[in-house]
Amino acid sequence: MFKLANLTKTLVLAGLAFSFTAEGVAQSKYTGIGREATKAEVAAWDIDVRPDFKGLPAGSGNTLRGQEVWEGRCASCHGTFGESNEVFTPIVGGTTKEDMKTGRVASLLSDKQPQRTTLMKVATVSTLWDYIYRAMPWNAPRTLTPDDTYAVLGYILAMAEIVPDDFTLSDKNIADVQKLMPNRNGMTQAHGMWNEGGKPDVKATACMTNCTKHVTIGSSLPDYARNAHENLALQNRPYGPYRGVDTTKPPVSNLPGKGLMAVSMTAAESITPEGLFKKHNCATCHAPASRAIGPAISEVAAKYKGQADAIKKMHAKVKVGGAGVWGAIPMPPHAHVSDGDIEVLVKWMLTGK
User: Fold this and answer.
1) Quick check: 231 and 286 in contact, CB under 8 A?
2) 178: phi > 0 → left, psi -120 to 50 → alpha, else beta; which?
3) Out of 44, 182, 220, 331, which could bridge 95 as a Cys pair, Cβ 3.0 to 4.6 Å?
């Protein structure tokens, strides 16, 4: 919890220096610039909840109400029972009654568990309360009341069999629920992200010697998670020139091209319309017959068909960019692309030749 009443130092916001009164009201160091933040404005910003539950608002909610909120505002992304893997990874699953006793989730150490769920990993129930209240639902954050937040969190805990089905969660008993969290003892600060000489690298001292000149960045999935979201090759990814790999098969030994964003082609191929399309990464936003970030090539050709000045219009659009014709996402300018390349691409898109 970030208590403004305890601040004694100067806070710099948007290039201006502010100090705080004993009542937690911001005051500008410079006269005639800005204004004091009201208590209501400070209260609206100061909503985080600490693991010791400082900052937790008073309230309560039962699991019956939580189920109503869940089915109306949460299930579409997280599944009826919190098990959905379609939009987000599962919230519930992978924990046992024994984990509740020890405070350590045993399945985190086993590859037999197909996927790590939220309740397998999170250590503090305050983290769940704080995140739900601040960020959920996905399409309308900060629209849940404190009571509804207690209710929906209680329902999640009930689905995981951490609390009874008819439980009422409140600011009065949430500390007792914390004692039942399956992974409450599974978090530690006694390590760094990397080890140096067998010791945690917590000082982050940069080496800066014998650095590699060229680095290829890639990624991989463990076998148990490889097909968790089904075959990526059949899914239309919104970003990047690659539409995903066939995750039903073993991983390829090498990434496509010389790097993740590299395009490999001969000199002869690079001057063809198809080659220019790859060279200038047009496939990042456009596909032949289906929408990606921008319209399909077939849609563009249909829209400008029969217009005498179509090539001129398209040439200008590619060169300077724009928005509003195909939706809210703007097309960035391509001033770095030569006029000759743009002309070849535009004619190819409009005529297929």
Assistant:
1) no
2) alpha
3) 182
Q: How many residues does the chain have?
A: 353
CA 240/CA 255 separation, integer angstroms: 14
3-class secondary structure per residue, 219-254: CCCCHHHCCCCCCHHHCCCCCCCCCCCCCCCCCCCC
With contact defined as beta carbons under 8 Å apart, do 78 and 91 qualify?
yes
| CA gap 50, 56 in Å, rounded | 8
Cβ-based neighbour number of residue 194 at 10 Å: 9
Per-residue pLDDT reduced to its tens digit, 271-317: 788 888 877 878 778 888 777 778 888 888 888 888 888 889 888 88
339-351 and 310-320 helices, crossing angle to 10°: 130
**61: which residues sit within 8 A by CB, 6+ positions away?**
147, 148, 149, 150, 151, 152, 153, 154, 168, 169, 170
Q: Is 196:202 a contact under the CB 8 Å cutoff? A: no
pLDDT tens-place string over residues 14-42: 444 445 555 555 555 677 788 888 998 88
**What span, in angstroms and rounded, lies between the C-alpha atoms of 348 and 302?**
13
Q: Residues 125, 103: contact at Cβ < 8 Å?
A: no
The C-alpha atoms of residue 268 and residue 96 are separated, in whole angstroms, by 62
